Amino acid sequence: MPINLVDPAGLAKVDLYRQMSVATGSKLVFIAGQVAWDADGVIVGEGDLVAQVEQCYLNVAAALAEAGASFDQVAKLTVYLADWAPDKMPLFVEGVARAAAKLGATPAPPLTGIGVAALAAPGLLVEVEATAVID
């Protein structure tokens, strides 16, 4: 595997992701921020953070598959959350868990979550971008 996920000694452990990834592959894949649109550009889960997180992760998985990759090869995720508040974390975690169940994978690469005022279109609650490394 070109990606080794690590929780370095001296850093807090987080259940949702690992603190670091070490990549050894030779091909980089950069995936634009994926929002909760279906293939027709319709929002999935209007007003539902859980459903939108799930759809974003499924969209990232579809892009990874196009590159011949999977979540096992994701080195870093960046998540943008509209109108974020810490009390929404359980909803985010549930959305990731639902996507993981559908994908048969546990996406746990390093993750940076950023609260933003709004995203590119009304009704979007979350956007997920990914960087993967494959051989």
Keywords for this entry:
6 strands; 24% helix; single chain; 135 residues; four-stranded mixed beta sheet; two-stranded antiparallel sheet; alpha+beta; 60s Ribosomal Protein L30, Chain: A
Give an account of the 3D structure:
With 135 residues, the protein is an alpha+beta fold. It contains 2 helices and 6 strands, in the order βββαβαββ. The protein has a 4-stranded mixed beta sheet with strand order 3-6-4-5. The mean pLDDT is 93.
Can you lay out the helices and strands and say which pair or pack?
Blueprint: E1 3-6, E2 20-23, E3 27-34, H1 49-66, E4 74-82, H2 89-103, E5 111-116, E6 126-134
Parallel strand pairs: 4-5
Antiparallel strand pairs: 1-2, 3-6, 4-6
Give the SSE order as H and E letters: EEEHEHEE
CATH architecture: 2-Layer Sandwich
User: What does the main sheet amount to?
Assistant: 4 strands, mixed
Give the CATH superfamily: RutC-like
How are strands sequenced across the largest beta sheet?
Answer: 3-6-4-5
The CATH top-level class label: Alpha Beta
Average pLDDT, rounded to a whole number, is 93
Strand content: 25-35%
Give the termini distance in whole angstroms: 8 Å
Helical/strand content category: alpha+beta
Helix content: 10-25%
Poorly predicted runs of 5 or more residues: none
Cα shape? globular
The DSSP helix count reads 2
How many distinct domains?
A: 1
Enter the CATH topology name: 60s Ribosomal Protein L30, Chain: A
